[in-house]
Amino acid sequence: MHQELAAFYDKLNITPDLLTYGDGPFGSRALRTALSSSFNDYFNPVEKVLPEHLLVAGGVTSIIDLICFAVADEGDGILIGRPLYTSFANDVKARAGAVLCPVSSEGRDPMSEEMVDMFEKELVKREKEGTRVRAIILAR
What is the pTM of this model? Predict the structure, then answer.
């Protein structure tokens, strides 16, 4: 079946190895190389992003689950700006047992610099309540 799919998508330069785990569970090396190059060009980070820093998975639920399982324990908080996709609460809780901590944007762009103070206020509030915050999800 891989050969047939590759032939069908030949215009996109799809090869059979791209339809398998090929380079392993972190995503294709070519894709991670292209992404790291784009991140470095667009964001100009202090530390260069390398392909080895990236993991590509099939869908945001998978990525959120992986991250939360790696960084959070049961009951730990994960901050996220509102508005948000309602399934995020299930994504952080399913395996890690983490708790989603929504941060109201109060009409601001949830990705704006103004939100830094809002996230910090929510972080302080949650920690005073006894919730250890382990991560922030930035999502549009």
Answer: 0.73
